[in-house]
Design brief:
174 residues; alpha/beta; Ubiquitin-like (UB roll); DNA polymerase, domain 1; four-stranded mixed sheet; two-stranded parallel ribbon; 7 helices; 14% strand; flat
Length: 174
């Protein structure tokens, strides 16, 4: 009986610590929820992050925060992000909007996507990592199973690994 009380007591303490951690707000770096504490906003900056970050949204940061701090709160850049035009050392300002573009958006280049349902062997071979063998495997899969419904289905083709798919997914369409 005494062991059960110790176990239950320990579990309650651990749960209490976890709940305290989850519901305690750090005044320096809060993510804005539905309710905004106006005193907190007056002492800090509200910054919006959009585009190729893992968690776009509004963030409250201290007035001396830098763009790198906000990107960190947004859980970093996605794999598609073009960071070449972002000065991570810059200070933020209240009402600032940080937009992280993809390479294609940032350069204004047109995407000439390869349609994996209609592409020839030669067209498929223009994709990085796709040689003649893999291009023919894609066409064989397409002929056997019908047109791809989604680009993710390309991973079902023999020789197309997850890593290779990640390299070409921005270059293909159905």
């Amino acid at each position: 009986m005494k062991k059960k009380l110790i176990i239950i007591g320990s579990a309650v303490i651990v749960l209490g610590v976890v709940l305290l951690f989850v519901f305690t707000k750090d005044k320096r770096t809060n993510i804005i929820t539905n309710e905004i504490d106006t005193n907190e906003v007056l002492d800090n900056c509200v910054v919006e992050v959009k585009g190729e970050v893992n968690r776009p949204g509004l963030y409250i940061v201290s007035a001396d925060a830098r763009i790198s701090d906000v990107i960190e709160l947004a859980l970093g850049f996605t794999d598609k992000a073009d960071t070449s035009s972002i000065n991570l050392a810059s200070h933020v300002s209240d009402g600032m909007q940080i937009i992280v573009y993809t390479y294609y958006e940032a350069t204004g280049e047109e995407k000439n996507l390869i349609n994996i349902n209609t592409a020839t062997t030669e067209q498929l071979m223009t994709l990085p990592g796709i040689g003649e063998v893999k291009a023919k495997a894609i066409i064989e899969y397409r002929n056997k199973n019908g047109w791809f419904k989604d680009i993710n289905e390309l991973k079902n083709v023999s020789g197309i690994s997850e890593n290779l798919f990640e390299q070409i997914k921005e270059l293909i369409t159905v």
